[in-house]
């Protein structure tokens, strides 16, 4: 029994040992040779490891004081469903020529199990630049590309030789910008071709420089001086500008008020535009568009400076301008094409237009105005919130401001309405019909208020505070009565006496009721008598007079309840 138990315990120990992560035999870095002039920050090795329990991701590190000061580890993405994990080993400080460095590399799985391997690095007298030239028969560190290059185009290609230590072909990796990728194919038994492909459109004005990094795993090296399994270099994609963007106005005042003292030849305003293409901008020329515009003969646009000047008298201009109407001009900014080509792409424009509005002196800012100074509307009492007031002729619920631009924008609000009403719209540009609606119907009670009054305020928004121009209109709201009150008797109980031998027509009692509603809603009619022997009495519907209905009535003291009285309801 003891022998069997010991055997089981030994097997269990072997099983646990087999579950530790394992370095790939080809990437253990046991004997690494690196040229001594390799630049700090360079990736000098790609380590790889697996885990039979799939306790991913794996984490690589370098152990020991010497290793931690010399190297830095950059773990690569390794999701849980991976079959292998990798990391880049980077040089953290300059190497000392011919020195041997000893350190430990480690890999740890997600459960904390760790494997260590001893490693060495020798700084050889070789040249890192020569190593790059040997591994890459063709490479470039700068790619120039015009911004109108089509998506999918090949920008440049690179050739890399494979390592002579194994049969694997070298594999190229491109990083730095997602709009580029490297497309690979074999260019021979020992050479791989990698083409840089454009994936998205370029725009010089948005970004004109893309720093990238090209790396090759398992490249050719002189193993006596260099046993690195990854070589790389920085390259840059420089985007060159093409004429594909029209000019842009950076100064073109949309509204300008002419001074009253302006004379022919005086400066009105100045516009300024620049070429939208920043790499090789063209000069700009300015002009006025004359087609169909009666105002352009009164002005001159300086072609090179963008200065707009008045060339005829202000009185002549006033004679053809309608009151409260601006003078509208269209100015064009056009690129100067010296090479005889309109643009690199005929679809792209070389000119831009802008609209200018000139306000003549004397066209002062005016306040808003209502179509009527006073409004009368009606609304039934107890109208629910949201009910609109009814404005009938001659009252037109309209307000306007003839000023242009911000001077014609004004707000509408109510004054002294106690929160009973609200107005829409609240902000108007130019003109609009307004609607007043019930907001709170608490005061819409005809028996308390037959009429409500308030004001509508129209106030320009371009000048805050007391400086803003405004106008008001008074509103009278007539509240119409509705049948919302029941009649009320003047007494809760009426007591009357009569002889049991009374004859038909004998008055018994006089009742009286009133209704606070007005008009037909306030008229009262007496309709019925309820109770035992009610057919022995008659009720006048207009006067409320209660009388004996017939001679043979059934009023008899001997049969009255309690021998005293009869009770009726009206």
TrEMBL record:
Note the PROSITE patterns from the entry.
CADHERIN_1 (PS00232), CADHERIN_2 (PS50268)
**Gene3D superfamilies from the xrefs?**
Cadherins
Q: Which residues form the signal peptide?
A: 1-18
In Pfam terms, one family for this protein is Cadherin
For this chain's UniProt record, which GO biological process terms are given? cell migration; homophilic cell adhesion via plasma membrane adhesion molecules
Q: Which GO terms describe its molecular function?
A: beta-catenin binding; cadherin binding; calcium ion binding
Q: Which CDD domains match?
A: Cadherin_repeat
Q: Which residues form the Cadherin domain?
A: 137-249, 250-370, 371-489, 490-558
What GO cellular-component annotations does this UniProt entry give? catenin complex
Q: Which UniProt keywords apply?
A: Calcium, Cell adhesion, Cell membrane, Membrane, Receptor, Repeat, Signal, Transmembrane, Transmembrane helix
Q: Which SMART domains match?
A: CA
Q: How does it sit in the membrane?
A: Single-pass type I membrane protein
Which cellular compartments is it found in? Answer: Cell membrane
- Described purpose of this protein according to its UniProt entry: Cadherins are calcium-dependent cell adhesion proteins. They preferentially interact with themselves in a homophilic manner in connecting cells.
- Name of the protein in its database record: Cadherin-related family member 1
Q: Which organism is it from?
A: Cloeon dipterum
């Amino acid at each position: 029994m003891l022998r069997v138990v010991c055997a089981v315990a030994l097997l269990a120990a072997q099983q646990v040992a087999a579950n530790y992560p394992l370095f790939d035999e080809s990437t253990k870095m046991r004997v690494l040779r690196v040229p001594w002039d390799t630049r700090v920050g360079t990736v000098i090795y790609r380590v790889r490891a697996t885990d039979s329990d799939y306790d991913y991701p794996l984490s690589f590190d370098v152990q020991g004081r010497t290793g931690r000061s010399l190297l830095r580890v950059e773990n690569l993405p390794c999701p849980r469903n991976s079959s292998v994990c990798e990391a880049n080993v980077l040089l953290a400080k300059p190497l000392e020529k011919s020195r041997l460095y000893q350190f430990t590399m480690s890999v740890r799985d997600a459960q904390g199990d760790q494997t260590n391997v001893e490693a060495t690095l020798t700084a050889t007298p070789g040249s890192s630049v020569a190593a790059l030239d040997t591994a890459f028969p063709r490479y470039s560190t700068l790619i120039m590309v015009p911004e109108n290059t089509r998506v999918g185009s090949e920008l440049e290609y690179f050739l890399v030789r494979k390592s002579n230590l194994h049969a694997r072909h070298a594999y190229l990796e491109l990083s730095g910008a997602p709009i580029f990728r490297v497309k690979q194919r074999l260019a021979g038994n020992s050479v791989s071709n990698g083409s840089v492909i454009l994936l998205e459109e370029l725009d010089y004005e948005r970004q004109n420089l893309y720093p990238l990094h090209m790396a090759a795993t398992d490249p050719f090296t002189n193993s006596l001086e260099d046993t690195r399994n990854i070589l790389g270099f920085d390259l840059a994609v420089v985007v060159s500008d093409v004429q594909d963007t029209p000019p842009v106005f950076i100064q073109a005042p949309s509204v300008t008020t002419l001074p009253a003292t302006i004379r022919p030849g005086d400066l009105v305003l100045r516009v300024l535009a620049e070429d939208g293409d920043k790499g090789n901008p063209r000069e700009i020329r300015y002009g006025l568009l004359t087609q169909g515009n009666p105002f352009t003969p009164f002005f001159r646009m300086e072609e090179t400076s963008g200065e707009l000047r008045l060339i005829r008298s202000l009185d002549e201009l006033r004679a053809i301008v309608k009151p409260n109407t601006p003078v509208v001009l269209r100015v064009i900014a056009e690129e100067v094409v010296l090479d005889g080509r309109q643009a690199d792409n005929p679809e792209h424009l070389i000119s831009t237009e802008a609209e200018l509005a000139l306000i003549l002196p004397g066209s002062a800012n005016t306040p808003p105005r209502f179509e009527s100074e006073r409004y009368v509307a009606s609304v039934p009492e107890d109208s629910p919130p949201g009910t609109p007031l009814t404005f009938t002729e001659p009252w037109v619920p309209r307000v306007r401001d003839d000023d242009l631009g911000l001077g014609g924008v004004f707000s509408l609000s109510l004054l002294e309405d106690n929160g009973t009403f609200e107005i829409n719209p609240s902000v108007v540009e130019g003109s609009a019909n307004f609607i007043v609606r019930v907001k709170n119907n608490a005061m819409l009670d005809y028996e308390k208020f037959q009429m409500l009054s308030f004001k509508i305020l129209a106030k320009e928004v371009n000048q805050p505070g007391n400086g803003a121009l405004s106008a008001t209109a008074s509103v009278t709201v007539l509240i119409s009565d509705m049948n919302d009150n029941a009649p009320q008797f003047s007494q809760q109980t009426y007591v009357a006496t009569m002889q049991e031998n009374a004859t038909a027509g004998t008055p018994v009692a006089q009742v009286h009721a009133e209704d606070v509603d007005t008009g037909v809603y306030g008229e009262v009619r007496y309709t019925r008598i309820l109770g035992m022997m009610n057919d022995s009495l008659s009720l006048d519907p207009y006067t409320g007079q209660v009388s004996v209905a017939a001679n043979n009535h059934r009023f008899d003291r001997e049969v009255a309840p309690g021998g005293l009285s009869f009770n009726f309801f009206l």
